[in-house]
Amino acid sequence: MRPDQDSVLESLYRTHFHEIEIHAFRYLGKWDDAHVAAQETFHIACEKIDDLMKQPNRIAWLKNIAKNVCRNMYRARKKQLSLFVSLDSLEGIHEPGQSDDPAGSNAASEQGFCTLYEGN
Rounded CA gap, 32 and 60, in Å? Predict the structure, then answer.
């Protein structure tokens, strides 16, 4: 990164980080997530510094990046929640050989694992 790029990015970070964080909070609704999104936004800005330097409105560019970061975080959270829901739907389903007996007795423990599969 060239010194002029470094100074522009540092100036944007110092003066607009909180603004980007508030922008992200509007999408995500949690300050911790918004802080992470703002950090990720400036990380992306650092990686795409040449694109940032070409922008006539750098704040708008950063807000657009932040919006995309928030969307990605929302999608990831939604996917993670759907995984939890799908795992919860498996509750009550037992593996072969298991019973509903709370004492835990099942064919595998009564006969032994090897005995169950000798005939197969």
Answer: 22
